[in-house]
Amino acid sequence: MAGPLEGIRVLDFTWALAGSYGIMILGDLGADIIKIEAPFGDGARRQGPRVDGISTYFFSINRGKKSVVIDLRTDKGRQIALELVKLVDVVAENFTPGTMERLGLGYEVLRQHNPGVIYAALSGFGQTGPYREKPALDIVVQAVGGLMSITGAEGGEPVRAGASIGDIGGGLFFAIGILAALEERSRSGQGQMLDLSMLDCQAAILENAFVRYFATGEVPQRRGSKHPVAAIHQAFPTKDGYIAFSVGGLEQWTAFLEIIDRLDLLSEEKYHDRYSRAMNIKELEPIIIEALKHKTTDEWLEKFEAISIPCGPVNDIAKATENPQLLHRNMFIDLPCPGTKPGSLKVSNTPIRLSRTPPEIKKGAPDLGQYTEEVLSTLLGMSPPEIASLKNEGVIK
Questions:
Q1: pTM value?
Q2: What topology does CATH give the domain 233-314?
Q3: Catalytic residue among 28, 42, 89, 167
Q4: Which DSSP letter does residue 266 get?
Q5: How much is the pLDDT for 339?
C-alpha cells in the first residue's frame, strides 16, 4: 500500500541527528529520500554502539533512505547536485548557515533551477541573528534554551534531558514545516525556504516555563519529577521501585487520601486544589513517600487504577520494550541489516497510524553509496561508462 507521501522526492543533505530524524519521518510516510553523502560519509556512521561494524545510531535515523556519494567540492559534483535539484520536491540541509552558499548550492541558486522546490534549512540558531554562524549540538541548545536549568533534582546541578530533546524537537518541527510548505505549494505552485532554528524549537516546546516567567517574574527552577504548578503529579518510590501518577480535583484527591489512609489531610485547605498542593509540596511530599513505601508498585497501580488515577510504573528501557501496550501497537520492528550476523536490527517504529494509507517501513539504513549508480542512471540517465569515469575522478563513489 502506498504511503501518504508517495511521489514526494527529497534531496537530503542532512547529517547527525536533528535533520536526519526529521527527514526520516518523511521517508517513513512514503517519501523517496535521496541522502547525499560526502566520500567519507555521514559522521553518524562512525558513532557507536556498533553491531558487526554497523552503527546502530546511524541505522536508527536513516532507515529507508538511498545513499548517494557525491564530492560537492568538485565542479562536476556540484553540477550533478544541481541536476538532481530539478527533479525533487524538497532539498533539506542542516549545515551551519552559509555552508551551502559557499558550495554554490544555496536557496537563491537552487530556486533558479527549480522554482517549486521547498528548501528546508535547519541550524542551531537559524539563518539570522547574532548567533547565526555559531555551531550547536543538542546539549548546547538544551543549555542556552533553558531546558537544562529546569531539569534535574531540586537544588542539584543542571542536567541534560535523558533524550536528545534539542535535536528531536528540531527534527519534528523540521518535518512539520516541510509538510506545511508542500501543502501551500499545492495551492500556489510556488516553492519557498524554511528557516528553522533548533534554539527556537527548544523555546517553543518549554510548555509554560516562559509564560510563567513573563507573568510572574519568577524564574522556574529544577524540581525533579514534580510539576511546577500542579500536584500530586510526580514519581514516588514504592516498596520495590517507582510509580508515577497524577491526582486531579477534590473528588480524586479525596479518593487518593482514602486509599493511602490519610483522610485527615482532607481538612487542610492548602491541599484542596492542584495548584495549592504544588505550592505546599515540601510538606506534602514526605507524607506521601511514607504512605507509599509499604506496598509494591503493582499493588499501588491496582489501587490507583480502581479510582481512575492516571498512573504507571517508572520503567527502565529494558522494561519498556516489554510493555504490553507498546507491543500491541507494534512499536518495535526488525529491519533488514545485511552486514550483521542477525541480518536485522530492531528499532522503534513510527507512531503514526493512518487508516487508509498507513506507513510501511521495510528497509533499513543504506550502505555508504549503495544507491549512487541507481540514482544517477535512473534519474539523470547516465550511462555505465559515464558513471565509471566519475568514479575514477573521485566525483562519486
A1: 0.96
A2: formyl-coa transferase, domain 3 (3.30.1540)
A3: 167
A4: G
A5: 87
